[in-house]
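This section describes the prediction task in plain terms. A model, or a person checking by hand, is given the sequence of a single protein chain and must write out its three-dimensional structure as a string of tokens. No templates, partner chains or ligands are provided. The sample shown here is typical of the held-out split.
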Amino acid sequence: MRRHTAALLALMLTAGLSVVASLAAAATSSAGRESFRGVLIASGRGGDRTIVSTLAVATGVFTGVGRIVEIAPRPGDPSGPR
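The expected answer:
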């Protein structure tokens, strides 16, 4: 029984140390320059704003491509452009 307990403790210690090591590596690699760029193309035909296409690109620590999603204004938001 003691061998099983010792093996289980060793396994848990190894797993815990590997998690700590991976978190430490992630924390050290998160410093650096980051750049975000985006494009939103809208049509104003007929007086209604219609989104035609969107693109968002991030480079740096995180590199990825996505899209911009507009949401309805919330109460208290300014009504005009800023």
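For orientation: DSSP finds one helix and three strands in the chain.
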